[in-house]
Structure formats: structure tokens, C-alpha cells
Specification:
Layout (H helix, E strand, L loop, with lengths): L1 H15 L4 H23 L6 H10 L2 H11 L4 H22 L3 E3 L1 H23 L8 H25 L3 H23 L9 H35 L6 H13 L5 H19 L2 E3 L7
Antiparallel strand pairs: 1-2
């Protein structure tokens, strides 16, 4: 639900162009850090090495969210949700296979094929309607696939190292707030000074409070207990939900091909997530 709200709010902003993608990322991490600051100061979860701080901040932070926002500048919210949710189990399976030594079973392989087929249908629909949407919709699909890869690696790191929730909050939010927010305010293109306060408040609440601060508790727990592949189950209903909500909220009427692509991708997602994988022998350690 938080992902659907985040995609719809970001897509609404790309329609008004009141804020840049750098503004959305800055509001997300700045507001989330301020919300988490009392928890960080009270619990003092500092026992995290610098390399893992950097890992959490990079793969789950600004590069991930800017990829999402950049993708939405090329495609409608429906296409974006399908591209991200469809790419996520594919990337999660690859990360699990390479890093966690869990090979996809036959049913999961079919699910991956269906997810890719659905993404192609959605992308083709965007190309057919390029005059009424943004140009070059395939760039949007590539940005969402990059975002799915980044967050899947983030899930894999939390799962492998069993990073506690408090340390996850510190690692994800602190460096992004301390490093990115000043760079954003001083050097990056911004519409903050001209955007209406209602727009700034909407994006701050949706992305900062719900999309980052509240969602991190659920994502951190699920990543430690479920692993990257089943973590994708949290987003399996995203395409259908965003497709429905985008009609009254954004006026985005999907084509029949896009609707079919959403359905095929959703089936592929569910097969990829819930069918059994095959555990491989662990690589020998030296």
C-alpha cells in the first residue's frame, strides 16, 4: 500500500512538475531522518561497520529512489508499478541464486518468463501510445528494473547479515540525510522555492513519513525473516492496485494491452514468489 501511494504521489508530481526528482528524494530522506532521530538517539544502535552503513545507504537509499522517480517521468503510474513489481521478483531470484545459493525451481522459472512477458506487453502499450504519454517508455522500464535490482541487493544484505531494525534505520537514513540532503539543497535542480506548500506537504508525508520511515520497519523485518524472493510478495498486488487507483486520481486510462500485461505480470510475480526454489550447496569458505 505504501508503495502504491508513493508511485501515485510521485506520478502526480511529474504531471504538475512542481518539484524535481531530486526534491522528492531530498524530502523523502530528510523527513524520514527527522522522524527517526528520536529513535536513533534513544536506542543508540551504532554497532554497524562503516562498509555496511554505506551498503544500506546506497542500495536502499538515494540511487534506488531516484531510479523510481526517473522511471515515472517516462511512463504512467500503472506502467511504473507493473515494471517495478514485475522486475522485483526477477532481480530477487537472481540475488538469491548468486548470493544466497537458492536456485529458482521450474515453476519459478515459468513465473519469471511470465513476468518478463507482461513487462514487454506493458512497454509495447506505452510505445503504441507514445504521443499521449511520455516518449521513450522503455527508458522508464529500465529505470524500474535498476531500482528492483538495487533494492533486491539491499534485501539480500539484511538477510545475510541479519542486521537488526535499529541498525537498518541508522544505516539507511543517516548517511542519505547527512550527505545527500545538503548536496540537494545547495547544488541540485529544485522547485522547492516555487512549489505550492500543499504539494510539498503531500510529497513529504507520502514519501518521507509513509514511504521511508514507516515502511522501513516492515521491509527490515521481512528482509531478515523472509529473504529477497518472498519479500517481493509485499508488492505483488501493486500493479492491480495502482491500475485501479490511477483511473480516478490521475485520469490514466490503461489500454487493453496494458491491462493484459498487468494481469500476466501479476501471475508471474505470484508464481515466482510462492513456488519452491532449490537450495544449492554453500560455496566453500577459505
Amino acid at each position: 500500500m505504501t508503495t502504491a501511494a508513493m508511485l501515485l504521489a510521485a506520478r502526480f508530481n511529474t504531471g504538475t512538475e512542481a518539484l524535481t526528482i531530486y526534491d522528492l528524494a531530498g524530502l523523502r530522506h530528510g523527513v524520514a531522518f527527522l522522524c527517526a532521530l528520536p529513535i536513533i538517539l534513544m536506542s543508540r544502535p551504532w554497532g554497524l561497520s562503516l562498509n555496511r552503513h554505506i551498503f544500506l545507504a546506497f542500495f536502499g537509499g538515494v540511487p534506488f529512489i531516484i531510479s523510481i522517480f526517473a522511471g515515472l517521468s517516462y511512463v504512467p503510474a500503472t506502467h511504473g508499478s507493473t515494471a517495478f513489481s514485475g522486475s522485483l521478483p526477477i532481480m530477487a531470484v537472481l540475488v538469491s541464486w548468486i548470493w544466497l545459493r537458492e536456485r529458482p525451481g521450474a515453476g519459478q522459472a515459468i513465473g519469471i518468463f511470465l513476468a518478463v512477458a507482461g513487462l514487454v506487453m506493458v512497454g509495447w502499450s506505452g510505445m503504441a501510445n507514445a504521443s499521449t504519454t511520455k516518449p521513450f517508455p522503455w527508458w522508464g522500464l529500465l529505470f524500474f528494473s535498476l531500482a528492483a535490482l538495487l533494492i533486491s541487493v539491499w534485501y539480500g544484505g539484511i538477510r545475510t547479515w541479519q542486521i537488526p531494525m535499529g541498525q537498518t534505520i541508522v544505516g539507511l537514513l543517516t548517511l542519505n540525510a547527512v550527505i545527500y540532503v545538503p548536496i540537494w539543497l545547495l547544488f541540485l535542480p529544485s522547485g522547492l522555492s516555487t512549489a505550492p506548500w500543499s504539494e510539498i506537504l503531500l510529497q513529504a508525508v507520502v514519501h518521507g513519513l509513509f514511504g521511508a520511515f514507516i515502511a522501513i520497519f516492515f521491509h527490515s523485518y521481512a528482509a531478515r525473516t523472509m529473504g529477497p524472493t518472498r519479500q517481493a510478495a509485499m508488492l505483488s498486488g501493486g500493479p492491480a492496485l495502482v491500475t485501479i487507483l490511477a483511473i480516478p486520481l490521475l485520469g490514466e486510462i490503461p489500454t487493453m494491452l496494458a491491462i493484459a500485461g498487468v494481469a500476466v505480470t501479476t501471475i508471474g510475480i505470484l508464481m515466482t514468489i510462492f513456488l519452491r526454489s532449490v537450495s544449492l550447496p554453500k560455496a566453500p569458505t577459505t
